[in-house]
Specification:
mainly alpha; rod-shaped
């Protein structure tokens, strides 16, 4: 196999790998962003569910407290005690007060649980945004790799150098010593010297 063919294959595989890397980066970026958004929506649904469950639990607990107060009054009345004065009123008032505190605690706990899910949703969205940003940087790096591979192929085959395949001449410089339109001195892109051969 000729050296030119081997070089062409190497450059082709290198370029193909860079192109595949670019599409893999783009795919991974999109997958991470979509996954983060899905997780954020699930967390938001969990927040809504936590509030709904809290409201149901609070309502059920208030019914239990009402039933307890009714039982207390019935107990006092069964003992021929007037439920409208004295100790029976105090007992019922304490039960109602403690029941209200517990009901508000249930509501507060549900709100805290929902808030935790909302924070989780926000964290997922931030993760998705960061993944997208990192993915764009990775894609840019892959594009630079593609450009490097293409330029290497041009250099290896003397394309863009006016047919001169001399390794000591840059393919990007139209006049010796300066880059076009910039006046920046050119850099010799020739191959490194061979070592150990004399």
């Amino acid at each position: 196999m000729a050296v030119g063919t081997v070089t062409a294959l190497m450059l082709g595989f290198g370029l193909g790998g860079q192109v595949l890397n670019f599409f893999a980066q783009r795919s991974a970026t999109n997958a991470a962003k979509e996954s983060a958004e899905f997780n954020a929506k699930v967390a938001e649904m969990q927040a809504v569910d936590a509030l709904a469950r809290g409201a149901d639990d609070e309502e059920r607990f208030r019914e239990v407290v009402k039933g307890l107060i009714g039982s207390q009054r019935a107990g006092f009345a069964g003992q021929n005690v007037d439920v409208g004065i004295g100790s029976p009123v105090d007992v019922v008032a304490d039960t109602a007060y403690l029941g209200e505190l517990d009901a508000l605690t249930i509501r507060n706990n549900a709100a805290r649980e929902a808030w935790g899910y909302e924070i989780e949703a926000e964290n997922f969205r931030r993760f998705g945004a960061n993944a997208a940003r990192q993915g764009r940087f990775n894609q840019a790096g892959a594009l630079f790799g593609i450009g490097t591979s293409v330029l290497g192929a041009f250099r290896a085959f003397g394309i863009g150098s006016g047919g001169n395949t001399s390794p000591s001449r840059s393919i990007f410089v139209s006049s010796p010593g300066a880059m076009p339109f910039t006046g920046i001195p050119s850099v010799n892109l020739g191959p490194p010297p061979l070592r150990g051969f004399g």
